UniProtKB/TrEMBL annotation:
Its cofactor is pyridoxal 5'-phosphate. Residues 30-412 form the Aminotransferase class V domain. This is Cysteine desulfurase. One of its GO terms (biological process) is cysteine metabolic process. Its EC number is 2.8.1.7. The keyword Disulfide bond does not apply. It catalyses: (sulfur carrier)-H + L-cysteine = (sulfur carrier)-SH + L-alanine. Transmembrane segments: none annotated. Pfam families: Aminotran_5. Catalyzes the removal of elemental sulfur and selenium atoms from L-cysteine, L-cystine, L-selenocysteine, and L-selenocystine to produce L-alanine.
Amino acid sequence: MTSPASVLDLAAIRADFPILDETLNGQPLIYLDSGATAQKPRVVLDAEIDFLTRNNSAVHRGAHTLAAEATELFEDARATVAGFVGAAPDDLVWTSGATAAINLVAYAIGNATAGRGAPASARFALAPGDEIVVTEAEHHANLIPWQELAARTGAVIRAIRVHDNATLDLAHAASVISERTRIVAFTHVSNVSGIVSPVAELVALARAVGALTVLDACQSAPHLPVDFAELGVDLAAFSGHKLLGPYGIGALYGRSEILEALPPFLTGGSMITDVTIDSAEYLPAPLKFEAGTQPVSQAVGLAAAVRYLEGLDMGAVHAREQDLGNRMIAGLREIPGVRVLGDAEGVERVGLASFDVTGVHAHDVGQFLDARGIAVRVGHHCAKPLHRRLGLTASVRASASVFTTDDDITALLEGVAAVRDYFGADE
């Protein structure tokens, strides 16, 4: 059988990432923090620099040749990124990231509740006692915007529990999602456990009661084949900087009828067809959600990142990274005093693992690994409710990417195995 590692030419891939030639504390860099921010291949850096040096101009505004070229590249980027996630170009709204995308939806629904927007937007209006369902596994970016929406509208937040192994409790989900549920917002892949959520089951539960589904795809879009239309979600958000792309760019996917009905959130230039002193008429989606100056060079860079990943084949990327994730879980499980968060058998996951070392604070573990050239994430990973549910305040997270090698995982496991002895936690 052909292994995922043999399908992907790791040596060639690693040569595409200039930062991997750097050292960290005098050691070769082992970058295991892609869950926070992915490194960028040279083609992404070149694409953005090339745009800024040859095509830089305002889009959708100027009539001169340079502006027309910039606009064409900007919209080509939209089509490329949309195709990567199974969407039509008009179903993809540019944002500054996933946080902005989710806030866009929450505030647009708030505007609908306040009576703004076309008559079609009334379907999104919330009333006191309506319910917004999230899960205990959510990143704060897919929780706090809904808390704020609930506070503005009188809606109620309800949460689907997770089991002790961090998998979602589907029986509890079936009891929580009810006729009062208007929104079901959930992560595609947990940024703490790396476990892929049962999207089909949650979408079916939401559809049965007519609830809107909002998917956080930050940890899935870079690591496994994603087709939002096939998944059946109404809306989804993801960020470019986790997808091998630039900072300051992300996207909101929405089914066309949803985007057309939602009222805008940010308003101003570039999203209108007509303006008087007293009123304005808005462009159709996605442009009605893109007020002001757009992240043009970033969109071009993100399109280059998407083409790079498509060239590798996302199926092979997922298979390879899932192998790495399983290896991390299995290796960590064997180290005395180490507890893995999301230690579940037989689940689909990405190449990400979080863990706790008994008797040693997560920050100390991170610094110990950093001294060995290993970059990991420490803290609550913007997922305090999940850490609280699992009885922790912080953990260490290692997350792989397309360039991660087996030797990187070996170095991680050897480092973690030495932590408790170094800090005297075994005494």
